[in-house]
Write a structure and sequence with these properties.
This protein is an alpha/beta fold. It has 2 domains: 140 residues, Response regulator (Rossmann fold), CATH 3.40.50.2300; 54 residues, no CATH class. A 6-stranded mixed beta sheet has the order 1-3-2-4-5-6.
Length: 231
């Protein structure tokens, strides 16, 4: 495993090749950085790695034993449909390149390309993949407008977001507890916005500001004439 330095990009790349050619091929790849590279010595090994980890870019160096490019592309897309796949193959015709692209490959190049050409293509694929992720994230945030109330991406905050997503659409009572300033009201607003009544106003009441003897009446209402001055 090695790390490339692509400015502003942190992403995993899977390099697939015949096990006998693998070390020789990687020696030709320039250190242009930012991508964490993992290698797979064949198609089956590659599919197992794709099932176990998130990869942004895949470079498949053909030929591979028992695998054709169309079959490999199909299997990769079944596991990771969003990944950018670069096919390296010797002597492809124009019709073959067009076929690979129609099958979902990001690009198709000769196996004897220059290191600079290969580096630029991988960088373009990584940037393309990163832009797709940002677009997807933006769409998700637009759909979940309540997410603006929760600041941060820590594990704890992701758990809070998961709970808000679960609780929001439900008709149930929720108790939020925590120290002063922890953000209980922000979470309450997120739950309200995520719910079916988000089009209605949320009313925040400070219970500590209400007289104890009037707390129940102020929150839940009262029968007219039940006590002096009630209407």
């Amino acid at each position: 495993m090695c790390v490339w330095r692509l400015a502003g990009i942190r992403m995993k790349l899977l390099w697939i090749s015949n096990l006998e050619r693998l070390s020789q091929e990687l020696e030709r790849v320039p250190e242009v950085g930012g991508l964490e590279i993992e290698t797979a010595g064949g198609g089956w090994d590659a599919l197992e790695r794709l099932r176990g980890a998130e990869f942004g870019v895949v470079v498949a160096s053909l030929p591979l034993p028992d695998w054709s490019a169309p079959d490999l592309l199909e299997q990769i897309q079944r596991i990771r449909s969003e990944v950018a796949v670069i096919i390296r193959t010797p002597g492809s015709t124009l019709s073959e390149v067009v076929r690979f692209l129609k099958l979902g490959a990001y690009s198709c190049i000769e196996t004897e390309e220059s290191p600079v050409t290969l580096a630029l293509l991988i960088e373009e694929a990584a940037e393309y993949q990163k832009s797709r992720e940002l677009v997807s994230l933006g769409s998700a945030l637009q759909e979940e407008s309540w997410r603006k109330f929760l600041v941060g991406e820590s594990g704890a905050m992701r758990n809070v977001a998961r709970l808000v997503r679960l609780i929001g659409p439900r008709r149930s009572t929720v108790l939020l507890s925590g120290e002063t300033g922890a953000g209980k009201e922000m979470v309450a607003r997120a739950i309200h916005t995520a719910g079916n009544r988000s089009h209605l106003a949320m009313v925040a009441v400070s219970c500590s500001a209400l007289p104890e003897n009037l707390l129940e009446a102020e929150l839940f209402g009262h029968v007219r004439g039940r006590f002096h001055g009630s209407r």
